[in-house]
Amino acid sequence: MNLSKTKKRQLWVALATLSAIPAAQAGKGQEFDVIIDSGLSVNAGIGSAALSTARATTRDVGDRLFRMRAGLRPMTTTEETVVDGATDSKGGMSKTPITRTVTSMRCWEIYGSLFYYTENQDRQVLVVNQNVPGALRGTRVLGNPGTDVDIFGGNVGIERHFNENWSAGFAVGGASTDVDMSFFGSSDIDSLTLTPYISFYEADMLGSADFWADLMYSHGFHDFDLRRASFGGFASASPEADTDQVEFTTGLNFQSGSVTHGPFAGLRWIDGSIDAYTEVGPGAGFFPEQDIESLASILGYQLSFPIQLTGGTLVPQVRAAWEHEFEDDGNVLFGFPLGEPDEDVAVLGTGIGFYCNSGWNAVLDYEARLSSHVEGHYVGLKVGKEF
Can you tell me the distance from the alpha carbon of 22 to that of 366, in angstroms, rounded to the nearest whole number? Predict the structure, then answer.
């Protein structure tokens, strides 16, 4: 890569600025001072990336929410059996054979999915809180350096339909996350998630409206490979993290001609911690355990358009939701803020699914997350087989 002299100078100035705690950038008075440290910035970046990874890896596992929003129930199979005629009034056998029709539900589904999620988080400058003594109180610091996150992953799972109302499933997910924090550093994250869930659907439960609900739990294991720019080179570390996630989603379905539509709402809680770690390399430092947490509510509306075809059902779907974050005070390290999550996010989604009469199904789904500091885009493909 060829850099101009100006770009090279800017690069070395940036790397030199990242050297120690604190390195002040003077402005017009203390209210404009900014303390920049690459260790704080890297911790801010990996904390928000861990939350994004946990959320993306478990997003609508098995397309169960897409399916319930569309009002689709488990596939059924019909078998016709020809048996001997019944006994007539004289004790003999009727010459006319009897055909018996037996309908049974496909109770099991196995599925796999692949997804890609990309997210851009804007740079944040925050104010030091009162836990830091001395003249640093009220000083502005760089809380989040501006982070690009790219996540590739997928899930494999199995689901059991107990009857027309209840079903439960279990999925194993994996993801590889690339985190770029511009000149401050970067990180790779390898994740493994274990996700059980249970779903309920009742037709005409509230008058003519169908009611559905879903409860999901997921535990995630995350391995980091950090590289941090420091004075004289790069420091590295390999901490681990664990996340726990609980998500409850519910909604109503109304039928208007060929359109299934209705409101949905949810509550998602993510709690985790990134282990304390000691770096190796030039400018190596020690960083304590970092707690990460998110509590968000979701309120939205969806429209699905089931279309009966010869070979199955085609389902286009659109939806829009408002997500509100209650844990909006961010995290701190050594008393310094590590960035604040956006309080309100617009979540817009669309997808198309095809459910074959043979039991095969596929869903292609897209979702955008838009807020004042974050822009994210998700695309996923799930393929399943009922039997």
Answer: 42
At 90, the pLDDT band (50, 70, 90 cuts) reads low
Tell me if 276 sits within 8 A of 306, measured CB to CB: no
Q: What's the pLDDT score for residue 89? A: 59
What does 10-34 look like in DSSP terms, one character per residue? HHHHHHHHTSSS-EEE--SSGGG-E
Give the contacts of 320 (CB within 8 A, at least 6 positions apart). 300, 301, 302, 346, 347, 348, 349
Structure tokens at 313: 């059902």
This model's pTM is above 0.85: no
Torsion of CA 78, 82, 83, 88, to 10 degrees: 110
Residues 6+ apart with CB under 8 A from 36: 17, 18, 22, 23, 25, 141, 142
The secondary structure of the chain in percent helix, strand, coil, rounded to multiples of 5, reads 15, 60, 25
Segment holding 67, helix H or strand E: helix 64-70
Mean pLDDT (the chain, rounded): 85
- Which tokens in the block code for residue 297? 């509510």
Inter-residue contact 60 to 363 (CB < 8 Å): no
Q: For 183, which DSSP code? A: G
Q: What count of residues does the chain have? A: 387
What CA–CA distance (Å, rounded) separates 326 from 143? 19
Q: What is the pLDDT of residues 10-61, one digit of tens each?
A: 443 344 343 333 433 333 344 445 656 678 788 888 999 999 999 999 999 9
CB crowding 214-243: b at 16 or more within 10 Å, else e: bebebebebebebbbbbeeebbbbebebeb
Token digits of residue 232: 């004289």
